[in-house]
């Protein structure tokens, strides 16, 4: 079972949007997918309520129950997404500790970038691979600014995903329906961006799994 934590010490950066869309992408790819909502605002849980009986399952939980829940679902789950609250605390730390990969959504703004450094330090402090995902970005922003920000973060040793998720009305509209753009408008640019990000994330998990198997075979 693979576990992805989506974490950032700042609100409004699109954590739940990434969680819901990536989880639906996993489900559409045939993976047994679950979401664990650790955020007291329960946005992901409310999204699931609007979906009715449609997968993926969303479990609302407190951080002190996370390890037991993960153990309980391990046998019938391929991938889990952990949605976390914006504040530093037990929930974020527990999610990062449990994760195979940590995604840190971020907009190219000073306050967001400062929060990224804190989130990244938390992940690295727990020896977890963390990757920044530029999210909710203006489609009009010059690519050179994105490239410059990538360079600045790289100089600090911070990895960024190659796929940028842009601000689009379709994301919010689909969320309001308990859906994602992968379902409401699968041929859209927004859906294509999310599929590209999902493909990249899957590749990272597969590479890690292959490395772990190779290391085990040498012992």
Automatic annotation (TrEMBL):
Family annotation (PANTHER family): COBQ_COBB_MIND_PARA NUCLEOTIDE BINDING DOMAIN-CONTAINING PROTEIN, P-LOOP CONTAINING NUCLEOSIDE TRIPHOSPHATE HYDROLASE
The protein, known as: Chromosome partitioning protein
A Pfam family: CbiA
Coiled coil segments of this chain: none
Please indicate which superkingdom the organism of origin belongs to: Bacteria
- CobQ/CobB/MinD/ParA nucleotide binding domain location is 4-180
| InterPro entries referenced in this protein's UniProt entry, alphabetically | CobQ/CobB/MinD/ParA_Nub-bd_dom, DNA_Partitioning_ATPase, P-loop_NTPase
Q: Which organism is it from?
A: Methylobacterium brachiatum
């Amino acid at each position: 079972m693979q576990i992805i934590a989506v974490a950032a010490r700042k609100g409004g950066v699109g954590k739940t949007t990434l969680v819901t869309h990536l989880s639906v992408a996993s489900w559409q790819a045939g993976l047994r997918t679950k979401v664990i909502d650790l955020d007291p605002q329960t946005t992901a849980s409310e999204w699931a309520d609007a979906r009715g009986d449609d997968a993926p399952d969303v479990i609302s939980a407190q951080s002190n129950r996370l390890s037991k829940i993960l153990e309980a679902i391990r046998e019938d789950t391929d991938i889990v997404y952990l949605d976390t609250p914006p504040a530093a605390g037990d929930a974020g730390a527990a999610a990062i500790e449990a994760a195979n990969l940590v995604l840190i959504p971020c907009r190219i703004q000073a306050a967001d970038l400062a929060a990224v450094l804190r989130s990244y330090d938390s992940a690295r402090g727990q020896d977890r691979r963390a990757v920044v995902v530029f999210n909710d970005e203006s489609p009009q922003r010059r690519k050179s600014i994105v490239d410059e920000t990538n360079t600045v973060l790289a100089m600090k040793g911070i990895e960024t995903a190659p796929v940028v998720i842009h601000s689009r009305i379709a994301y919010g509209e689909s969320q309001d329906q308990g859906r994602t753009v992968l379902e409401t408008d699968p041929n859209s640019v927004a859906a294509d961006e999310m599929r590209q990000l999902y493909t990249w994330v899957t590749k990272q998990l597969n590479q890690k799994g292959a490395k772990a198997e190779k290391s085990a075979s040498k012992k």
